[in-house]
Amino acid sequence: MKTLLKIAVIGLTGMLPVIESAQAADGTNWKIGRVYNRFVCNACHRQDNDRVVSPYERNKADWKAYFAANKHDATGTANASALYYTSTAYRQSIKDKNKAAAKFLKMSDEEMAADVIAFYVRGAKDSDTPARCQ
User: Fold this and answer.
1) Is the per-residue pLDDT at 49 higher than 50?
2) pLDDT digits over 60-85, tens only?
3) Which of 107, 111, 117, 120 has the most CB atoms in a 10 Å sphere around its CB?
């Protein structure tokens, strides 16, 4: 029994760096933001014959300012609010054709937005971990 407990503790301890690297002290999870960006945000951008949006396109301050301004579409052809696209209402509206949106339906608007923002800031071109999207 003690051996089994030791194995369990060692196994969980080995997973801590993985968990800590994904979840920040503020509770955000950039990995969820990455998945959401890849399968929801960029799926729509590709569908509209637009280019995918990569965190590497801007620096951290620019991404923070973009999300604080909350302006997504200046053309008037889509919802102008950037954070609308992380909302439960939006996820609900596309859930039948987008499995990732359906998977994240239970997350609050605030959690989803924070995770997406964390992904963009973490992957910005001036970050320690710049990221390009596929």
Assistant:
1) yes
2) 999 999 999 999 876 777 788 999 99
3) 120
Report yes or no on 22 lying in a domain.
no
CA 130 centroid distance within chain: 14
Residue 19 near residue 11, CB atoms below 8 Å: no
> Domain limits at 94?
28-122
Domain-embedded: residue 118 = yes
pLDDT of residue 22: 62
**Token pair recorded at residue 123:** 């992957």
Cβ atoms 121, 54 nearer than 8 A = no
The three-point CA angle 106-80-43 to 5° equals 55
Q: Is 125 helix (H, G, I), strand (E, B) or coil?
A: coil
Predicted TM-score of the model (pTM): 0.78
Could you tell me which of 63, 60, 87, 84 has the C-alpha nearest to residue 72?
Answer: 84
